[in-house]
Amino acid sequence: MSKIQGWKIHISPFLDDYEKVLEIVIKKLVEEKVTFKFVPYLSDYLSLSDKNTSPSQFGKYITIYPHNVQQFKKLNSYFASVLLKFDGVRVPSDLNYKNSTIISYRYGGFFPNVYMNNEADLDYKIMDGKGHLVEDNRKTFYKLLDNISPVYPVKENNLPQSVVIQGEIKKKKYKITNTRGAS
Length: 183
Fold this sequence. Notes:
Blueprint: E1 5-11, H1 18-32, E2 35-38, H2 42-49, E3 62-65, H3 69-82, E4 95-96, E5 103-109, E6 113-116, E7 122-127, E8 133-135, E9 161-168, E10 173-180
Antiparallel strand pairs: 1-3, 1-5, 2-3, 4-5, 6-7, 7-8, 9-10
């Protein structure tokens, strides 16, 4: 793999299906000579599923690093068809591919520059579309870097959801509204 950043795919099946999904995915990726990584042990899978796991890692059981946008699209389409019967977990930093519950994607670092900040936390940096070193956003919501074009149209139903609570405390009446696209 020569690229240090680009579009990547995450396959995130539920534990009961992990072995079956992994077998299907590995077969295709080896055939296509695509770089990937996966969690090899149950303890790793459970760690990436824990509620205290960083959003930068949550649910990323299989990560695929396509060579280019054409291969990225081809693999998404292929896996969407062969993994249709499987469900999975939501990767907070990604967009789901079409209506898939198991395939998600984002633009990010394959080998990002890593820096330690003043709080002794690690900051991941990649180049934006203008060649500036910027944060490789791995938050609980999807955000595309400036001057990087989306591969697919971003639909409202593909954006993360947040819940807004409105009401009057005195009367203890609350209205819960599901909103889309709020960050």
